[in-house]
Write a structure and sequence with these properties.
By secondary structure, the chain is α/β, with parallel strands linked by helices. The chain folds into four domains: about 120 residues, Response regulator (Rossmann fold), CATH 3.40.50; about 120 residues, Alpha-Beta Plaits (2-Layer Sandwich), CATH 3.30.70.270; about 90 residues, no CATH class; about 90 residues, Orthogonal Bundle (Arc Repressor Mutant, subunit A), CATH 1.10.10. It is about 60% helix and about 10% strand. α1 packs across α5. About 0% of the residues have low confidence. This is Two-component system response regulator YesN. It comes from Falsibacillus pallidus.
Length: about 525
């Protein structure tokens, strides 16, 4: 409702104007002031949108009152009321931003038209402000989702149609030269603290908060050049832990990865933060990855990372036999290099923890893998590892069984059956009535693999089966599995399998010859 203040030292003028305005504009909320000084007070208390101001009043005149009110309330509009049609008054009024003026005596029609014109302008401005506020609210909500989306893409390699650079630009935050990941572990039932943690990070303007996966909340933190890495991380971890009530602090923990120089390398810091949060029993409630005791084999760092990535992909794809083989191979390599059984068991447990986190990210609820006792020899450790892997495999399969009635099952089946055709996300979207972006996200979150990689996997699996037939040429297989160019098929096959199609076929031929 628009508020209007009538300022005139003559009561009959005020009452007359009130009657005329109420008849013309019944929705107006009208108040009165009998001089300039009271008008200034009323402007503070009543907060009018429009003031009809007489010029000649005892004490503070209208122009003086307008000047004071405009300084404190620049949005208020004014219509001057005067019996003096002089150039000087008009000049001063225009200088003060007065919208219009009425000469005494004015007709009812003149008053209605003059006030109506300014009221229309006020209503348009209010509508514009409301619209702008609504857009700002919507943008803020969208930016919150964008922030979560950016973190998800960076840490979990989710595929979206919108380019990452565009999302980063929308957040209006200039990524610092270094950044690192903090993994916040929350106790069960503490999901309500998610908003408080997000608000805490937002107020410090120090990072982006991802989605809450189970009990895990990843945060990408941008380095503050005014502080050391350790002091910044400890401060933030402390601020987050403070959000827990004293009697509920158990279960809260923050793992802190090493800083890295690019967003592309942030996944390494994420993995480190995961590992650093493995043991949440420390009284300080946080741990730096760099503080963990060194443990590794003689293989180079690049090979170790490649092995770790393969391991995580196998977990996501549910290739449990390969997961078991990798862990057993790791145990043998450590044994060969003379590591103690305690060190080997810690390393295996570390990988099992990471596998458990990956499954949790995919929406599975699993118990934290724990060995029931200290293994005394490799055979005992392999046996205990097999038991834990079997529990994880069962959780994985139960989870996917529950998804079978879901659309993801339909999509997966469709792709496996039609992988030899040209399948696009648009086509899949039309088939199940979902948007391509949603399908892309669904794939990554439910299957732990993006759509293109899954399609490629299906085609390569089919190609391997076809290569068992010696009558089929590589060229024929290329087209049969859905590729249009043999050289491209060979490159994809080698990237996935590590060998060319010809060499793979030779391996098959050699195996048959050896039987």
């Amino acid at each position: 409702m628009v508020k209007l203040l009538i300022v005139d030292d003559e009561q009959t003028e005020r009452e007359g104007l009130r009657v005329i305005l109420k008849r013309a504009f019944p929705e107006l909320n009208i108040d009165e002031a009998k001089n300039g000084k009271i008008a200034v007070q009323k402007a503070d208390e009543f907060q009018p949108d429009l003031i009809m101001m007489d010029i000649k009043m005892p004490g503070m005149n209208g122009l003086e009152a307008i000047e004071l009110i405009s300084a404190a309330h620049p949005a208020i509009k004014f219509i001057m009321i005067t019996a003096y049609d002089t150039f000087e008054f008009a000049r001063q009024a225009l200088k003060l931003g007065v919208k219009d003026y009425l000469l005494k005596p004015s007709t009812i029609k003149e008053i209605g038209e003059t006030v109506g014109k300014v009221l229309k302008e006020i209503e348009e401005e209010q509508e514009s402000i409301a619209k702008s506020r609504k857009q700002q609210d919507a943008l803020q909500k969208a930016l919150t989702l964008v922030e979560t989306d950016v973190v998800t893409q960076l840490l979990f390699d989710h595929v979206h149609e919108v380019h990452l650079d565009m999302l980063v630009e929308m957040l209006h935050i200039h990524p610092a030269s270094e950044k690192f990941v903090m993994m916040v572990l929350l106790p069960a039932g503490s999901e309500q603290h998610y908003s408080a943690i997000k608000e805490k990070i937002r107020t410090t303007k120090s990072g982006w908060v991802g989605a809450l996966y189970g009990r895990q909340l990843p945060i990408i933190v941008f380095r503050d050049s005014e502080k050391s890495f350790r002091s910044q991380a400890i401060f933030l971890a402390g601020e987050i832990i403070k959000l827990a009530k004293k009697d509920q602090a158990a279960g809260w923990f923050v793992g802190i990865g090493n800083p890295c120089s690019s967003l592309e390398a942030i996944r390494q810091s994420y993995q480190e933060a995961l590992i650093a949060s493995m043991d949440a029993s420390l009284p300080v409630k946080y741990r730096f990855y760099s503080e963990l005791p060194p443990l590794g084999t003689a293989e180079d760092e690049q090979m170790a990372k490649k092995r770790e990535q393969q391991f995580l992909d196998q977990v996501r794809l549910g290739e449990w036999e390969k997961v078991r083989e990798n862990l057993f191979d790791l145990i043998q390599r450590f044994v060969h290099e003379g590591a103690s059984m305690l060190q080997i068991q810690q390393k295996v447990l570390e990988l099992l923890w990471i596998a458990g986190r990956v499954m949790s990210e995919m929406g599975m609820e699993i118990e934290t893998p724990m060995f029931s006792f200290q293994a005394q020899d490799p055979r005992q450790l392999q046996s205990e590892t097999s038991i834990l892997l079997e529990q994880m495999r069962q959780s994985y399969e139960e989870h996917h069984e529950r998804l079978e009635a879901d659309s993801i099952h339909q999509l997966r089946q469709f792709i496996m059956e039609h992988s030899h055709e040209d399948i696009s996300l648009d086509a899949l979207g039309r088939k199940v009535g979902l948007s391509p972006i949603y399908i892309s996200k669904l794939f990554k979150e439910r299957l732990g693999i993006n759509y293109i990689d899954f399609l490629t996997e299906c085609r390569i699996t089919k190609a391997k089966k076809l290569m068992q037939d010696p009558e089929k040429s590589i060229k024929e297989i290329t087209f049969e599995v859905g590729y249009h160019e043999p050289n491209y098929f060979s490159k994809v096959f080698k990237k996935v399998c590590g060998v060319s199609p010809k060499d793979y076929r030779k391996t098959l031929t050699g195996q048959k010859a050896g039987i």
